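Case study 2.
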Amino acid sequence: MKIVSYIRVSGSPYDESALSLDTQREYIARAAEQNGWDIVSEFVDVAASKVAIGKRLEGAKALVMCKRLGAPLVVAKLDRLSRSAHHIAQLMKELEFKVATMSHATAYELHLYATLVEHERKFIYKGLRDAQPLPQQIVGLELHPSFLEEHPHYATFRIGRTSENRQLAAVAVSNRVKVFHSEVRPHIQACLDTGLTTLSDVANCLNGKGIKTSRGGLWSSTQVKRVMEALNLKL
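Prediction:
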């Protein structure tokens, strides 16, 4: 399958989650190799996430090529497209896109993740006290404990523990785990591809890359073992 690669590098010093150009290119190339994709072109922008991709110089060109070829757009991480759930939803209507770090994520999972990322951006730029209420898409969901630890500002919101919400919570937890596993798989695989032979070595590799656990901490051999078993990865 032909794909169009898109990379966005942020010029903002506040974008702590930003990936370098080379790292994004590596993630996309690895996903292409694993999924049998053929990268026909690459477009690179230096732009803020708040600018819709269609209004970015290279992003607009990438969209035109995708539509002309009928090819999906591929990014390293979802926030390289946008941190706006609205922009993500609009793009979903226009064309197919994939995220290298979670290449098998469904449209629902991508939209849910975009909603959470957007809300976090509001906290970052407006401050905790001025943040808006939780988006309607996730009101009533019991957020995963690991997500709350990584994003403690969400803990101030009370979410009902009704029977219906418990069922929704189970779905939310499952989706969150799937998203995290999809994100961390290429990092673990990259470490394994260097010839590492112990779980401790893999943990050190992940920590050296600055990759955090689902709880936002450092990796241990036990955590690596648990995630690798879930992903069916072997040393």
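Confidence is low (pLDDT under 50) at residues 124-144, 153-161.
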